[in-house]
Specification:
This protein is an alpha/beta fold and 342 residues long. 38% of the residues lie in helices and 23% in strands. The chain folds into two domains: 154 residues, 3-Layer(aba) Sandwich (Rossmann fold); 147 residues, Dihydrodipicolinate Reductase, domain 2 (2-Layer Sandwich), CATH 3.30.360. The longest helix is centred in the last third of the chain and has 20 residues. Bound molecules: (2R,3S,4s,5R,6S)-2,3,4,5,6-pentahydroxycyclohexanone.
């Protein structure tokens, strides 16, 4: 039987998940597009062939003809809608962040823990990106020896007008916070955050440069530049004692003309991580069908860990100091990947 999926939120990401369901996810049906704007819901529903539309997320969650949910609504609604999905007994793929409030993340974790089951897969899609997967495998296979450092930068063409340095930490950097923690299989012990004293002549917020330490002695740096202008550019290099692994950008052509070679940068994260989103959504469908939480996927506990690091990073930036992160014990439900829907 086809899994009937409701997408809540018809913005950039909701539309992209609707596209994936409609075009790239055999065994899934786009059942409902739910958005506060009926016009927007109708537009996306007609573009991708959804069976129905709605403007009421709680009513959508409860529908008997909806088996699973993709939450792509505004960030501040993610935790409450994840909680509602759990209460409705329906699995949900929730776009990052679960919440920027660690306390809200804990409420969702407490709910899953009380039921002894995982319902929410979190949308840290880079875990499914083939390049990050190969990087993690190379480390696990001993190809580069023990990991020592990881360098990361994450550049957007330009940030929305309301984006601040703090939002670079709370909105953009959680991708690196999560995927680096996943690749290194470690936890962070401290974060320091800097911005160049040289202020922008373009009237935009300066880049943010973070240095993170891990409980295993790794050093990690992350640059977030949300006004890079030239393209959407995400790079990473994992440095080991006997080598390194660099992410390769999924470029399909290099144009040679007039004695120069040109490769095109993506305009934003959707084309750059298209395969990651497809594999993530495919893993979610398998989760719904089998009840077994996907081995590589992020869960609500990972969402809590990312929120804690982001909160500490904002504190480090505003106070101009290194902020320590306390050691956390991962709850049993999130250690195994068997905590599943039965
Ligand atoms: C955005 O919210 C995302 O999640 C993208 O993946 C990230 O690259 C971008 O910087 C964020 O603003």
């Amino acid at each position: 039987m086809s899994i009937r999926i409701a997408v809540i939120g018809a913005g950039i990401m909701g539309a992209d998940h609707a596209r994936i369901i409609a075009q790239d996810l055999p065994g899934a049906t786009l059942q409902v597009i739910c958005d506060a704007s009926p016009e927007r819901a109708r537009e996306i529903a007609e573009r991708y062939g959804s069976a129905d539309v709605s403007s009421d997320p709680m009513q959508t969650l409860a529908r008997a003809d909806v088996d699973a949910i993709i939450i792509a609504s505004p960030d501040e609604t993610h935790a409450v809608l994840s909680m509602a999905a759990i209460n409705a007994g329906k699995p949900a793929l929730c776009e990052k962040p679960l919440s920027q409030s660690p306390e809200e993340c804990l409420a969702v974790i407490d709910k899953e823990t009380s039921l002894g089951r995982q319902f929410v897969q979190l949308g840290f899609m880079r875990r499914f990106d083939p390049a990050y997967r190969e990087m993690k495998s190379a480390l696990q296979d001993g190809v580069i020896g023990r990991a020592v450092m990881m360098h990361n930068f994450h550049r957007n063409v330009e940030a929305p007008a309301n984006f601040s340095g703090q939002m670079a930490i709370s909105n953009s950097a959680p991708h690196e916070f999560d995927v680096v923690r996943h690749v290194l299989d470690t936890e962070y012990s401290a974060i320091s955050v800097f911005q160049p004293a040289r202020r922008s002549t373009l009237g935009v917020d300066a880049p943010v440069f973070m240095v993170l330490e891990t409980r295993d002695g790794h050093l990690v740096n992350i640059e977030i530049n949300n006004n890079a202008r030239y393209g959407y550019d995400v790079r990473g290099e994992l440095v080991g004692e006997q080598g390194s692994v660099q992410l390769a950008c999924p470029v399909h052509t290099r144009v040679n003309t007039q004695r120069q070679a040109a490769e095109r940068y993506a305009a934003d994260w959707r084309p750059r991580f298209a395969e990651a989103y497809r594999l993530q959504d495919k893993a979610f469908l398998a989760f719904v069908n089998t009840g077994v939480f996907p081995a590589h996927a992020a869960n609500t506990w990972d969402g809590y860990c990312a929120a804690l690091v982001a909160q500490a990073g904002i504190q480090a930036l505003s106070e101009g100091r290194r902020v320590s992160l306390r050691a956390l014990d991962t709850p049993a439900l999130y250690l195994s990947r068997e905590g599943a829907l039965s």
